[in-house]
Write a structure and sequence with these properties.
The complex is a heterodimer of chains A (284) and B (305).
Chain A: H1 3-36, H2 42-46, H3 59-90, H4 95-109, H5 112-126, H6 133-157, H7 161-169, H8 174-202, H9 206-209, H10 232-242, H11 248-269, H12 271-283
Chain B: H1 2-55, H2 63-68, E1 72-73, E2 78-79, H3 82-113, H4 116-131, H5 134-153, H6 161-185, H7 189-197, H8 202-231, H9 234-239, H10 257-265, H11 273-298
Antiparallel strand pairs in B: 1-2
The chains are: A mainly alpha (284), B mainly alpha (305).
């Protein structure tokens, strides 16, 4: 085979690889939705789950998923914003900064089961929270932090230097520059990052099994942070590994579709307005 | 007189306001610095607490037994984790063997071949791959892949090393794709142009110029994919069969460090030798992932989180 033929063959193979990666994703998502969408009904989405009988719903788990997500984001966003701002705006290349950067990278690669066990030692046993929504949310913070810090830092770094200089030259303090000039400009990037992080935290399982537990509160929508905090993803795993309900595959299908829908919404719907908004701000 | 007094008052007020703002500025700086330090505190706390809990195992079990014996039978006091460690390494290696070539080809496609509109489709698609929860990967593996393997290869169950590795290979695709694509796109175009001007075909250029130039980035991608694969828990646990034995074939059910932690942690009292042995397994995972991060830093490539 001469080199020109090789060249053409390579292009064809690369196209095939690229398209098969896209195709695989489409088939994957399509299959989960195809199996799960027929299961979704108001009864299923809001209903109570059952341990033994068929026909249970996932209302409490759905509520727990979003409640825990909101708690963990509420706790992690201020810290992550602060850390991201520090790394992008204040940090000089000292030993401490290097140590912090290495910590962020390491934290991002720590397997989630290890984070889960850490949460189990610290929050569940040492602080005595037990398997609870609060324990789960606090552990989830550890997962969110490195992702959020990275996107914040990157978003802030994209703000042109001239903006800072102009603001400082007008006599603003650094904090004023950050809150009135840099953060508004970097907001769309930060929001995109938060959305992606939320999507990941929503589907996280390994971290939550031993911190939030596999039980839910008796009340349907319980804001008590000490209640059992089983989420959708944990429920899916629990059903498939130890569940006793006869219709566990049906419930699992439904949860799969719910999770995929939530992630699609996170990734598509929320990113569209952010992009439009970003463009409009750019034009001003 | 009155005017001067008023302006002096105003200046004082201004001064006060200015000092207040400066005070806020200092507060802000301290808060941001403290928030950054939290990151370091957290990682050291993880290493310390998980390590402390795990290393207590060695009070009762010798390190030799833990690392070099395959006998795992906590009820009769045998804590040999060798097969779990091997299971983790084998499934990771197999996943990389399957996933890395496909991911790399996809990255070359995305960086050099794909038309712009397709790039705009593929970038979000990669994000979606990352966003799909690992239980959903595991579940699809359970209802599609396992029965398919069982039918196609005439196996008893279909659970085992191959099923877990195939799903892992899909799960590491986004890591390899996104980081390699960035590395490939960062290669100086003048290198490519020089090679093409010398008469090399496009593929020769990619093979001999672009890929070597992007090699550190691609290596980074592979190592981070390994870190993701070895730490992956839910999908692996659902597919690998959860039997503490050595994987002798692609279809033999086995177990990994992560899957065994999930399966057994619920049954063990906190602080027992059994529980501590599981924490030690988590500590081994933690050290492995930290080692990979240090390895990545040796490549001197872009940061990653």
């Amino acid at each position: 085979m001469d080199t020109r033929m090789q060249n053409q063959a390579a292009v064809v193979v690369l196209w095939l690889a690229g398209l098969s990666i896209l195709g695989l994703l489409a088939v994957f998502l399509g299959y989960v939705l195809y199996r799960g969408l027929p299961v979704l009904s108001l009864d299923f989405v809001l209903g109570k789950s059952s341990d033994i009988l068929a026909g249970g719903g996932v209302g409490a788990q759905l509520f727990n998923s979003f409640y825990m997500l909101a708690l963990s984001l509420g706790l992690s966003i201020p810290v992550a914003l602060g850390a991201g701002l520090y790394l992008a705006e204040y940090a000089k290349e000292t030993k401490l900064t290097k140590c912090i950067r290495l910590s962020v990278e390491s934290l991002a690669t720590v397997p989630s089961i290890v984070l889960g066990l850490f949460g189990m030692i610290l929050f569940v046993n040492v602080l005595g929270l037990g398997f609870s929504i609060l324990g789960g949310a606090l552990t989830l913070v550890l997962l969110n932090l490195p992702l959020l810090v990275r996107v914040t830092e990157e978003a802030i770094r994209t703000v042109p230097k001239s903006y800072r200089e102009a603001s400082l030259a007008l006599g603003a303090t650094k904090l004023q520059t950050i809150t009135r000039v840099i953060l508004p400009k970097a907001l769309s990037g930060i929001l995109t990052g938060i959305t992606l992080t939320a999507g990941r935290a929503l589907g996280e399982t390994a971290i939550l099994i031993f911190t939030a537990g596999t039980t839910v509160s008796r009340h349907r929508f319980d804001f008590d942070v000490m209640a059992g905090g089983e989420t959708l993803a944990v429920h899916l795993w629990y059903l498939m590994s130890t569940g006793l309900v006869p219709d566990r595959e049906r419930i699992a299908d439904g949860i799969g579709a719910l999770l995929v829908l939530a992630i699609l919404v996170c990734n598509i719907l929320l990113m569209v307005p952010v992009k439009i908004w970003g463009k409009q701000r750019g034009r001003q | 007189m009155e005017q001067a007094a008023a302006s002096q008052m105003a200046a004082k007020k201004n001064d006060k306001g200015h000092r207040r703002r400066l005070f806020y500025d200092t507060c802000g700086r301290w808060f941001f610095g403290a928030a950054a330090c939290v990151m370091s505190i957290v990682i050291f706390a993880i290493i310390f607490l998980v390590g402390k809990q795990g290393l207590q195992t060695f009070a009762e079990v010798s390190p030799l037994e833990f690392f070099f014996s395959g006998q795992w039978d906590p009820l009769s006091g045998k804590y040999g984790a060798l097969f779990f460690i091997l299971g983790s390494f084998l499934s990771t290696a197999l996943a990389i063997l399957i996933g890395a070539p496909l991911g790399l080809m996809g990255a070359i496609f995305l960086a050099k071949v794909a038309p712009t509109w397709l790039q705009h489709v593929m970038r979000p698609a990669i994000d979606l791959y990352t966003a799909i929860p690992s239980v959903v990967y595991g579940y699809v593996g359970l209802v599609v892949l396992v029965p398919w393997l069982r039918e196609t290869f005439g196996q008893a169950t279909g659970f085992g090393l191959l099923a877990a590795s195939l799903i892992l290979a899909v799960m590491i695709l986004p890591t390899i794709l996104s980081i390699s694509t960035d590395a490939l796109q960062a290669v100086d175009p003048s290198l490519e142009e020089a090679s093409l001007a010398l008469g090399a075909t496009w593929w020769q250029t990619v093979q001999h110029v672009v890929l070597p130039a992007a090699a550190p980035g691609i290596l980074t991608a592979v190592v981070l994919a390994m870190a993701r694969a070895i730490g992956e828990t839910m999908a692996v646990q659902m597919l690998i069969g959860n039997t503490p034995q050595l994987a002798v074939s692609l279809f033999s059910p086995t177990a990994t460090l992560t899957s065994n932690i999930v399966v057994e942690m619920g049954n063990t009292p906190f602080g027992s030798v059994w529980g501590n042995a599981l924490f030690l397994m988590a500590f081994v995972l933690l050290l492995l992932s930290l080692a990979m991060i240090l390895l990545v830093r040796r490549f001197g490539q872009r940061r990653f989180a």
